[in-house]
Write a structure and sequence with these properties.
The chain is an alpha/beta fold. It has 14 helices and 7 strands. Strands 3-2-1-4-5-7-6 form a 7-stranded mixed beta sheet, sandwiched between helices.
Length: about 325
């Protein structure tokens, strides 16, 4: 079964198929003249659809390769480009837009996590499908995965594996990593984790998956980045502005779900046995969606979409907390 709609805009040789594209475009409702932020530009799948709808897009990405490729797009040219590039992490959304003279936006979308292009390049060290340097840095700067694993204490490594990868045998894996140091390649790490956990060839899920995921999230501070993005978006979205976040990991989705739950005032009802609580602050978001996942047609065309979850909401007229920009700048 083929996909249509926004997917028709993608070039035949696109290196990455954005997940839930039709659903994201519907959630953002792009219109001519709208100012929209694509917080995770990647290969520009979402941006391409937004530009086709007439919007101006401010695209953020900390990966220099993604920004370099985007500079070739014709929409970046001219005195009033409709595609404005920001080579910086999306935690710096407020600062980046301020430098561009943008005080308010109509929508923001973020596809949280690692991109297909990064996973498919062995030299970036994100995956164990092909041996490569143990790197995992989205920005290609700062401490690498090898730096962390070869210098951190066993306890620190175990905490990362447990909290960010939900690895139940985190202490066993951390002990094996420390004993095998120094580690230099993704193959080195995968072999250590598999041996520690008793890998059975042909099993449906490689036991190294959780450890790789946890280490990548730690190296790139992905959960901290996500929290900063949600704060910044709240401070920048105009009344009626739209927020859409696609996540691939339960920890990320939990952060987005809890944030929208609290920001929309959807708190548990007070017990009838307790005094009536004072009214809280006015809701910052409304029309919060439930979790949206890919349909069978998309899953057949793009298996990566299987773990994707979209949540979206609309900004109310309530003023954002006064320190929202400061926390995210």
């Amino acid at each position: 079964m083929s996909l249509s709609g926004p997917y028709d805009l993608l070039p035949a040789d696109a290196p990455h198929m954005p997940v839930l594209l039709a659903e994201v475009v519907a959630a953002l409702a792009p219109a001519p003249g709208a100012v929209i932020v694509d917080a995770t530009f990647g290969a520009g799948g979402y941006t391409r659809a937004l530009l086709a709808a007439g919007a101006t897009v401010h695209a953020f990405d900390r990966d220099p390769d993604a920004i370099a490729a985007a500079r070739l797009w014709p929409e970046t040219q001219g005195d009033a480009p409709r595609l404005v590039l920001h080579h910086r992490p999306f935690s710096e959304l407020a600062a980046g837009l301020a430098e561009a003279g943008v005080a308010a936006i109509d929508a923001v979308v973020a596809d949280i996590g690692v991109s297909s292009m990064q996973l498919d390049q062995a030299g970036r060290g994100f995956a164990f499908s092909a041996d490569g340097p143990l790197d995992m840095r989205m920005a290609q700067e700062g401490p690498s995965a090898a730096d962390f694993l070869n210098t951190a204490s066993e306890e620190a490594i175990a905490d990362v594996l447990f909290h960010l990868g939900e690895e139940r045998q985190s202490r066993r894996v951390a002990r094996a990593i420390v004993a095998a140091r120094p580690l230099a390649t993704t193959g080195d790490l995968a072999r250590v984790v598999r041996k520690a956990l008793g890998h059975k060839p042909g099993a449906p899920k490689d036991p190294a998956t959780r450890s790789f995921q946890a280490i990548r999230i730690h190296v790139n501070d992905e959960l901290g980045e996500l929290n900063a993005l949600l704060d910044a978006a709240t401070g920048l979205l105009a009344p009626g502005g739209r927020l859409a976040v696609v996540s691939f990991h339960s920890l990320e989705d939990r952060i987005v779900k809890q944030f929208l739950r609290e920001a929309s005032g959807a708190l548990p009802a007070a017990s009838r046995h307790l005094p009536m609580a004072a009214a809280g602050p006015a809701p910052l978001y409304e029309r919060v969606s439930k979790a949206i996942r890919a349909g069978e047609a998309e899953l057949a065309a793009n298996p990566r979409a299987r773990s994707a979850t979209l949540r979206h909401a609309i900004r109310t007229t309530a003023p954002a907390p006064s320190d929202a920009h400061r926390r995210a700048a």
